[in-house]
Design goal:
With 109 residues, the protein is mainly alpha-helical. It is 42% helix and 0% strand.
């Protein structure tokens, strides 16, 4: 699978935290926004297709992770890194930022 890493994607209208919150966080908006692990490349087609398929039912609400979610993490860590974890050692958070800095969720940053 090949990707075009030279293609520039305009994120200025995508409500991107790394662009739209630069001034609020750093006091200026002329910085290179490397403070958020946010991609500027298109997602691989397999991910885009999986998201489209998941949204076909048309219901968008709060969800909870199901067993397959946790099993996929357990199997991936074991197969890729020979690292064994158990279900009770995994906690779901809606993103790494909120897992590390839960107070910031309330602040909107």
């Amino acid at each position: 699978m090949q990707y075009n890493f030279d293609e520039i994607i305009d994120r200025s209208t995508s409500q991107s935290v790394k662009l739209n919150k630069l001034k609020a966080v750093f006091g200026r908006d002329d910085l290179i926004p490397l403070w958020v692990a946010d991609m500027d490349f298109l997602s691989p087609p397999a991910i885009t297709e999986a998201l489209i398929e998941r949204t076909r039912h048309g219901i968008f609400g709060y969800t909870v992770p199901y067993d397959g979610y946790f099993l996929s993490i357990i199997h991936w860590l074991k197969n890729r890194h020979s690292y064994e974890v158990y279900r009770n050692e995994i906690t779901f958070v809606p993103g790494i930022r909120f897992g590390l800095f839960p107070k910031r969720l309330k602040d909107g940053l």
